[in-house]
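Worked Example 4.2. Consider the chain below.
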Amino acid sequence: MSDNKLWAVHVQGPDDVHACESREVAEATANALNKMIDHVSSPMSPICRATVIEWPYTKEEWLKELQNMPEV
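Applying the procedure from the previous section yields the following C-alpha cells:
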C-alpha cells in the first residue's frame, strides 16, 4: 500500500461499499463499474454511480472484505 489510508468503491444507488487494495485499484474499479452502468442504463433507470472513498469501517473489516472478494 502506498499510503496509510484504506480505499473502497462506493456504489451509490444500491449503496454498496467494496474494499480495494489501493486507491489506484479503487479508481480503476469505479471507472469499470461506471462504464458498465452507462452501457446498461436507460433514461428511466435509477441513478447509480461508483465513486472512490476512504474505507469507512475498521481495518479488520477491510481485510475481511478483501479476502472475500472474487477474482476478476
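Residues 7-68 form one domain. The mean pLDDT is 90. Compare this with Example 4.1 before moving on.
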